[in-house]
Specification:
Layout: H1 3-7, H2 23-29, H3 31-35, E1 43-49, E2 71-75, E3 78-85, E4 88-93, E5 114-116, E6 122-125, E7 131-134, E8 150-151, E9 153-156, E10 159-164, E11 186-188, E12 193-198, H4 201-209, H5 221-226, E13 233-235, E14 243-246, E15 253-257, E16 262-264, E17 266-270, E18 273-276, E19 293-297, E20 301-305, E21 313-322, E22 325-335, H6 339-360, H7 362-378, H8 381-384, H9 392-404
Antiparallel strand pairs: 1-10, 2-3, 3-4, 4-8, 5-6, 6-7, 9-10, 11-22, 12-22, 13-16, 14-15, 15-19, 17-18, 19-20, 20-21, 21-22
Helix pairs in contact: 4-7
Length: about 400
């Protein structure tokens, strides 16, 4: 949508004032973010856990069946095929140059480094995308002269990252992940959760970081079972009070420091009718250290420290699939001092937090994101929303993302 079109729309609330002053600025200050329905181009994105893709066998002749050991995903609207060769993962566009057939319909790999289109035998080098041969026309002048798009891949902390874009990727993956995630001393659980969820990636990112969304978790089974202090929300936030905007060098994001603003632990609906948080940090058996710092980082990763228990850091990513879905990736990390401590942590995550968190806590987040998706997707929610005080955190994120992104992903 162009800026000219935006001017004809009803105005969003200003980040400085919920009464409507400064409306023109609010329309324009995060317009690139509004345009980023498919996410931001020229960034690294995590896409799956490395143990999901094994080393593939090779078909032994044209009459053999397809090779199963490939993985195909849609990321930012682009279909990408992944294959592991000698331990290294390569990524190539899942679409033959000839007539657009996806390799993933019946992937054929007759050598480790190649993939052959099952339709007409066009065969490409996985490492650089070059057309090596055409099985149905071995003397074709196209051979060696055309090249299929390939994608840079890095596998770190058990996660596979792919760079979506046209420019050379940043020299360091650290530019596009949450601070600390790649620390050598941080043990990251290598078999987290990766699912496709309903809604646009921006609804997910804003939900995870929304200082007032914790209201929906006040009665979560996880909160009740582990006596987690769950504030209704935080007010009085600003860049000088409980809110930090970080523009690098290195990762770029917005950090919310819980408890620094004016936390709301109870509210009066009418005289004599009050709603209170189930647990307060000062309550017996409730640790004050469980009021976490929450931060959102480009191009769409959350860090919650600590959660769901002291010493554990939760990491989430909201990776665009298409306009209406995102890939929801979740895992946990802990700084450990020994292999034995690492093993105990992994066992704790596998038996407790991985089963519990998605089913007793973040399932409520997924419900909320899906509930508002239609409003923003087809009802002009970006121009109808009426923001309030705590939303300054969200608007700072929108503005930051609009300033520092390396490009807007487009269809086609």
């Amino acid at each position: 949508m162009s800026a000219a079109t935006a001017k004809r729309r009803p105005a969003a609330s200003s980040p400085e004032s919920v009464e409507g002053a400064g409306e023109k600025r609010s329309r324009l200050s995060w317009q690139p973010y509004i345009d980023a329905t498919l996410g931001f181009r020229n960034h690294w994105y995590p896409v799956f856990f490395g143990n999901e893709l094994k080393e593939g066998d090779i078909s032994q002749g044209l009459g053999e069946g397809a090779v199963a050991e490939v993985k195909t995903l849609q990321i930012l609207g682009e279909r990408i095929l992944f294959r592991r060769v000698n331990g290294t993962i390569y990524a190539i566009k899942d679409q033959c140059l000839h007539r657009g057939s996806p390799f993933s319909v019946k992937p054929e790999c007759y050598t480790k480094e190649t993939i052959t289109c099952w339709y007409h035998g066009f065969t490409y080098d996985l490492r650089n995308g070059s057309l090596k041969t055409i099985l149905t026309d071995p003397k074709s002048p196209l051979i060696g002269k055309v090249r299929l798009k390939t994608y840079p891949v890095e596998e770190r902390q058990g996660l596979v990252f792919v760079f979506i874009g046209d420019m050379d990727p940043p020299a360091r993956l650290e530019e596009d992940v949450q601070p600390g995630f790649l620390d050598d001393s941080l043990s990251v659980y290598p078999d987290g959760r990766a699912v496709i969820a309903k809604g646009n990636w921006r609804m997910a990112a804003e939900n995870g970081f929304d200082p007032a969304h914790t209201y929906i978790h006040r009665n979560s089974p996880l909160v009740r079972a582990f006596r987690l202090p769950t504030v209704f929300g935080d007010t009085g936030l600003s860049e000088s009070h409980g809110l930090r905007v970080i523009e690098g060098p290195g990762p770029k994001g917005v950090m919310l420091i819980r408890g620094v603003g004016s936390p709301v632990w109870e509210a009066e609906i009418e005289p004599g009718v009050k709603l209170k948080a189930r647990f307060l940090p000062s309550d017996e058996g409730v640790g004050g250290e469980m009021v976490p710092e929450v931060s959102i980082w480009m191009p769409g990763g959350l860090k919650v420290d600590p959660f769901p228990a002291p010493g554990i850091i939760m990491f989430e990513w909201y990776v665009p699939v298409d306009e209406d879905h995102y890939r929801y990736i979740m895992t946990w990390g802990r700084y450990v001092k020994s292999p034995q401590e690492k093993d105990r942590f992994f066992e704790e995550v596998a038996t407790l937090w991985k089963p519990l968190v998605p089913t007793t806590f973040t399932n409520e987040d997924e419900q909320a994101r899906e509930a508002i998706h239609e409003f923003y997707a087809s009802e002009g929610g970006w121009y109808k929303e009426r923001l309030f005080g705590p939303d300054v955190v969200i608007t700072k994120w929108r503005e930051l993302a609009s300033r520092v992104n390396r490009g807007i992903q487009r269809r086609g």
